[in-house]
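re: ur question from yesterday

yeah so i grabbed the chain u mentioned. its 299 aa long if i counted rite. heres the sequnce exactly as i have it in my notes:
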Amino acid sequence: MARLLTLLGITLLTFLLTHIVPADPARTVAGPKADRETIETIRREMALDAPWAEQYALYLGRLVRGDLGRSYLTRQDVRGAILQRLPATAFLALCALAVAVALGVAGGAWAALRADRAGEGAIVATSVLLLSVPVFWLGLMLLYLFGYRLRWLPLGGFDSAASVVLPALTLGLGVGAQYLRVIHANLREALRSDYVRTAVAKGAPPRVVVLRHALRNALLPFVTLLALDLAALLGGVVLTETVFNWPGLGRLAVESVVNQDVPMIMGVVLFTAALVLATNAAADLVYGWIDPRVRDATG
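ran it thru and got these structure tokens back, copy pasting raw so excuse formatting
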């Protein structure tokens, strides 16, 4: 119920923000050369002359029926446009998360278990550096080096599997650095906990102690980050998709804002918000699987 109320609040906020901006949807639909009479006719047909409360009620009624509206410019169904762009964004999101999880879990665990003091410091410092680098700058540098200078990889677009390498690295390195810090900090804390010392005292093998006891508990905050990042990536990463000319939801959002295409903007925002709420709900279920104490507390 709380998530539904949150989604309702997001629809209201998005509706108000898109109607505050100085844009005339009727003129956008009619075109720049339309006369005033045509514009007024379109405004009446679209109920744009009605009070905001009535317009919002009509918008909610369409949402209940699964209708996100139509683009003011292309007249394309908004839901169809989102579903058309979603596969490219989903492919990029999964590849970026694979890079991030591999870097974060492996690097964080190695820093906590194997690295000496100097190596641990170097890993943590590298993660801070990756977190500090702007995503668009990193993307441009990777494009310049591997796409333009070395010509190993495509400069942009989505023509082959090789096209995803640079944008996935651009997103995955920064997200993975965040995961590395979280896994490293939580695993070190878990290794000093009483239940780990008890498992060691009972003669549990080191691998069992690390995987079943320490790492399993260290993954709880990681699950939250993973759920949020998955929703953000599936909602479209605006800067990265723009830099790499990636045909996903991020570019669709940019194009919609530039063209003041209100239905498309609202559709992308609402879709992203629904993803965030859905992944948070999934994260709660995963919590219960990783740590039964969470399931018992909520049950």
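noticed a couple things. DSSP finds 15 helices and no strands in the chain. also The mean pLDDT is 81.
anyway ttyl
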